[in-house]
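Following up on my earlier thread - several people asked me to post the actual chain instead of describing it. Fair enough. Here it is, all 95 residues.
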Amino acid sequence: MTDFRQADLSGSTFADMGSVRRVVDGLTEESPAAGTEPVDVPGWPRPQSFPVRECLLTVLNEEWEHRLYAERDLAVLEKRGPGTLVRAAADEAST
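Reply from S.P.:
Thanks for posting it. Predicted structure:
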C-alpha cells in the first residue's frame, strides 16, 4: 500500500501525474477517512492534520482545472493557424 500521507502531490506536470496515479492506486476504502501527518515547519497552513479525502479532492480538482485551461489555450492557438504552437513554445522558452 502506498503511504499517501508522505506523498508529494504538489505541482502539475506530467511527471507528477505518475505520483498521483500511484497514490490513487494505493488507496483502500479506509484511506480517505485517514488524516495527514502534520508538518513540523513554520508556514501556512499551521501544522495540523487534514482529511486525506479533502487533500485528494483538492489535487484532483486542480489537475482538472489545469487541463481545462490547457485545452482552451490549445484550441485558441489551433484556430490561429499552422506554426502558432511552435511560435508560442519558442516565445515561452525565451522568457
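The chain has one domain: 14-94. That should answer part of your original question.
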